[in-house]
Specification:
There is one protein chain. The chain is α+β, with helices and mostly antiparallel strands. It has one domain: Aminoglycoside 3'-phosphotransferase, Chain: A, domain 2. 40% of the residues lie in helices and 18% in strands. Strand 2 and strand 3 form a beta hairpin. It starts with a strand and ends with a helix. The model has no long low-confidence stretch (mean pLDDT 92).
């Protein structure tokens, strides 16, 4: 019998792996519903839904391997990274889903959330004030008007699988919906700036790099405290705090 592997577990949800089956446990049934709907709409490879019995969603493993992880080395050829960029562009060109996703927060709401989080990072002594202040300045470029597209919303590098130079699956669609295309691109390349040219070659359009860098600051500032409180380490080499330091 296959062993049960805890892929991720925190107070909001947990994901377990048993052989080639992933079991996602989420008390928020609406979030699971949105995830299943997003996978059915996305014009890119997604995991097969095996069954649903609230609060559990069972999906099949996708073939291939990820291009790396935040804080780890990037793997794969330039062509594989370009293929990932092309898949992301295909998603962004698809018809809009009916609801907003994590990447669809308004600039006003995001600015307020960011300011509050920056204050907490400093007052709780989690990060130096100059590091927070500099990255809040960089983050301002992300707070601009944007045209909504179909976004994944949590397009971490660990959520995109390839086999050779072909994208075989994109997983974890719980934050999908209408949002800012550059948020998706920035999330995918977080901590792997050296692959920027490869990804954009596949994506195939001019990109405002200042906005990409701004989203790196936004995502990292908003993640640090949550990660610490849920048992993760944003101070690990190559992770969120190093991303923030790179903007100094």
């Amino acid at each position: 019998m296959d062993e049960v592997e805890v892929v991720v577990a925190h107070s909001e949800r947990a994901t377990l792996r048993v052989g080639d089956v992933f079991l996602k446990v989420d008390a928020d049934q609406a979030r699971i519903d949105r995830e299943v709907e997003a996978m059915s709409r996305a014009p890119v490879p997604t995991p097969e839904v095996l069954w649903r019995k609230p609060p559990v969603l069972a999906i099949a493993a996708v073939p291939g391997a990820t291009l790396g992880r935040l804080g780890g080395p990037s793997t794969g050829s330039s062509a594989a990274w370009a293929a990932a960029g092309a898949a992301i562009r295909k998603l962004h060109d698809a018809p809009l889903p009916p609801h907003a996703g994590l990447a669809g927060r308004s600039s006003t709401a995001l600015a307020a959330e960011l300011d509050a989080e920056c204050e907490l990072l400093v007052t709780k002594g989690l990060l130096p004030a100059d590091l927070v202040t500099r990255n809040r300045q960089v983050a301002e470029a992300a707070l601009r008007p944007w045209t909504p597209v179909f976004t994944h919303g949590d397009l971490q590098i660990a959520h995109v699988f390839v086999d050779g130079d072909e994208v075989t699956g994109i997983i974890d669609w719980s934050e999908a919906g209408q949002g800012d295309a550059l948020y998706d691109l920035a999330t995918f390349m977080l901590g792997h700036e050296e692959r920027l040219d490869d990804v954009l070659a596949g994506y195939g359009t001019d990109i405002d790099l200042d906005v990409i860098r701004a989203w790196w600051s936004v995502r990292s500032l908003l993640a640090v405290r949550w990660l610490i409180e849920h048992g993760f380490d944003p101070f690990a080499p190559g992770c969120e705090v190093d991303v923030l330091r790179s903007r100094m």
